[in-house]
Amino acid sequence: MQNQRQSIINRSTKIIFQSLHHLFEPIEFAPIPDLLNPQPAFQRKMFIQKALADQLLVYLQLMPKTAAGQPVEVRGYLKSLGQDRYLVQSKNLSYFFDFDQLRYIAHPLS
After folding, report:
1. What is d(CA 55, CA 51) in angstroms, rounded to the nearest whole number?
2. Are 73 and 60 in contact (CB under 8 A)?
3. Residue by residue, what is the 3-state secondary structure of 26-72?
4. Torsion of CA 6, 8, 14, 16, to 10 degrees
5. What predicted TM-score, i.e. pTM, was given to this entire model?
6. Whole-angstrom Cα distance, residue 61 to residue 73?
7. What is the pLDDT of residues 80-94, one digit of tens each?
């Protein structure tokens, strides 16, 4: 009787572990992007004007509003919201940002 109870407990423990083991695996977070050298303000403004006029796909590195955030790298199309505020949209993401959050802007390679 004792052996039967132990075997049931062992089997049930094994079944529970096999079905729930993925819940106990460590979570891997996306790596924080390397910070690119910040571009001068005149260069960023000039490229923004060109990207808006020509509807160019752009690559952006944005700094967070608060110290609790992380830098973000985004590819998408820019829209101006006025007063140095912008919207960048890709297929499934949209980011609103101020000019002072923009660290780097470029035309992405392919």
Report:
1. 5
2. yes
3. CCCCCCCCCCCCCCCHHHHHHHHHHHHHHCCEEEEEECCCCCCCCCE
4. -130
5. 0.67
6. 5
7. 998 999 999 988 889
